[in-house]
Design a protein that fits this description.
- 2 copies of one chain form a homodimer.
- Chain A is α/β, with parallel strands linked by helices.
- Chain A folds into 2 domains: 18-89, Arc Repressor Mutant, subunit A, CATH 1.10.10.10; 95-202, Rossmann fold.
- The first copy, chain A, is built from 10 helices and 11 strands.
- Chain A has helices at residues 4-15, 19-37, 45-52, 56-64, 78-89, 104-110, 113-116, 148-155, 166-178, 207-220, and strands at residues 42-43, 76-77, 95-100, 120-127, 136-137, 140-141, 143-144, 159-162, 183-186, 199-202, 241-242.
- In chain A, the strands form 3 sheets. A 6-stranded parallel sheet of chain A has the order 7-4-3-8-9-10, sandwiched between helices. A two-stranded antiparallel sheet of chain A has the order 1-2.
- In chain A, helix 2 (19-37) crosses helix 3, helix 2 packs across helix 5 (78-89) and helix 3 crosses helix 4.
- At the A-B interface, helix 1, helix 2, helix 5, helix 6 and helix 7 of A face helix 1, helix 2, helix 5, helix 6 and helix 7 of B.
C-alpha cells in the first residue's frame, strides 16, 4: 500500500526537475506576480510564455514538471500557479541571508525590495572596514567581519551573499562554509572554490550587456550581416522584450 | 560566383544562432578569460564545459554555431576562441553606455570593473536629484536628467542602463528610445514597454537567490524529499559550482 503522497514523492524522484527548468521558474514567477498585481485570475500558456520570453511549448513542458497542466480553453489559474512555483522553489518558507561586503553593491543589495518580497530576509550586514562598521543601512547596523561566524549561528543564516572585492571573496567564502552555510551567492568578480555539497551561484552584471551587444551588432549588420534568430525560442512579437532566462 | 565571405554570410543567415546559445556565450567567454589569465593555451570541451557549468555536448554544439569545432585530442585554442566569441557578441568594438539613476545600484554599476573589461564604456551618469547632480563618481560628474537627450547624442550612447526607482523607469525608457537608443538594460523592478526593434533585458537580482533556495530546500528534504536532478545538464563533479547560464 502506498499513500498518494508517497506516490507523488516517488514520481517526482523518478522524474526530477531539469536544472534549466528550475532556472526558468523564477522568471515565470515574476511574470505571474505581475499578472496577479493587475488582478488577472487566469492566463493562457501563450500569454504567460510571451510575458516570460520563452515559447509556449517550453513553458507547458516546464510546468508539467510541477504537475501543472492548465485547463484547455482556460489556461492556468494565476494564484494557484504562483503557489505551486513558490512551493517548488522553497519560497513558501523564509530564508535568512547575510550580506558580506558593504560597498555600493552591498548597500544596493541591502535595500533591494526584490529580496524581501520573495521571502529572503537580510539578517545582517558585515564589513572589514572600520569606517563602515556601525553605520545604519536599510535599518541594519553593519557589523565587523570578525562577528561573521557568530552572526551565522545567531540568525540561522542559510545563504551568504558575498559582495566584497575580488581579493577578499575566497577567504570570506571559506569562513561561511566552515560555519555551515551551504549556499553562496557571489557578486565578487572571481571564481570561488567550494567543497562538494555547497552551491555557489555567481552574478556577472555584464552578461546581460553582452547579450544586448550581440543584438545591437546584429541590428547594425555586423559581423557578417544581420542573421535571423532561430525561431522557436521566442514567441512572435516578443522579441523586443527579452527576459533573462537562466538555463 | 560567390566569395568565401558571401558564402559564410549565407550560411550564417540560413543557420542563425539560437537565443539560448547567444545567452551562454558570455559565460563561456568568462571561463575562457579565466583560463587565459592563468596562461592556459588550449582547453578540452570537457574542461571548458565544467568551468562554464554546462555539459560538454551542449558546449560543442554551441561553439559549432560559431564555426568552431576544436581539434580532436587537443581541444580548443583559448586565445582564438576568446576572439571568436568576442567577435560574435560584438565585443571587439566599443559600446557607449549611459547609466540613469545614481542611487546605490547606479554607483555600484558606475564603478563595476566588469563593464570596461568587456568593451562597455560608461560615458555618463544622470539623475533627477539635485543633491546628486554634480557629484564625482568613478571619475564622472553626475549630470541632470534634463541633459539625457543631449548626452545620448553627444557621446553616441547605444545602450541605456536604467537604475532608477520603479516609478521613474518607464518615463526614462520612453525618452531614451525617442532619442534613438535601441538597447536598454533595466535594473528597475518593473516591466518596461518598448516599441518593436528595441531590446530590453531586465536584471532581477533575486533570481539567483531563488535558484539557491530551490537547492537549499532539496538538501533539507523538502517539499517532497530530495529529488535527483536530471542528469545531462551538469557534468559530474561540478554541481557544487553552478554558473548562471541564461537560455
Amino acid at each position: 500500500m502506498t499513500t498518494p503522497r508517497q506516490n507523488r514523492r516517488r514520481e517526482r524522484a523518478a522524474r526530477g526537475i531539469p536544472e534549466a527548468t528550475v532556472a526558468r521558474l523564477p522568471v515565470y514567477l515574476r511574470a505571474l506576480t505581475g499578472l496577479q498585481e493587475r488582478g488577472v485570475a487566469t492566463v493562457s500558456s501563450e500569454e504567460l510564455a510571451a510575458a516570460a520570453g520563452v515559447n509556449s511549448a517550453k513553458l507547458r513542458k516546464d510546468l508539467s514538471h510541477l504537475g501543472s497542466y492548465g485547463t484547455r480553453g482556460v489556461g492556468y489559474e494565476v494564484e494557484y500557479l504562483v503557489y505551486q512555483i513558490s512551493r517548488e522553489l522553497g519560497l513558501t518558507q523564509d530564508w535568512v541571508v547575510a550580506i558580506i561586503g558593504v560597498g555600493n553593491l552591498g548597500r544596493a543589495l541591502a535595500g533591494y525590495g526584490g529580496f524581501a518580497s520573495r521571502g529572503f530576509r537580510v539578517a545582517g550586514l558585515l564589513d572589514a572596514d572600520d569606517s563602515i562598521v556601525g553605520q545604519e543601512i536599510s535599518g541594519m547596523t553593519v557589523e565587523h567581519i570578525d562577528r561573521l561566524e557568530d552572526m551565522i549561528a545567531r540568525h540561522g543564516v542559510s545563504i551568504a551573499v558575498i559582495a566584497t572585492p575580488a581579493g577578499a571573496a575566497q577567504g570570506v567564502c571559506d569562513r561561511v562554509v566552515a560555519a555551515g552555510v551551504t549556499s553562496v551567492l557571489n557578486f565578487a568578480p572571481t571564481v570561488l572554490t567550494v567543497p562538494d555539497g555547497v552551491d555557489v551561484r555567481k552574478v556577472d552584471l555584464s552578461i546581460e550587456l553582452q547579450i544586448l551587444a550581440f543584438h545591437e551588432q546584429r541590428k547594425a549588420g555586423g559581423p557578417d550581416g544581420p542573421a535571423p534568430l532561430v525561431a522557436g525560442d521566442a514567441p512572435p512579437g516578443t522579441k523586443q522584450y527579452v527576459e533573462p532566462v537562466e538555463a
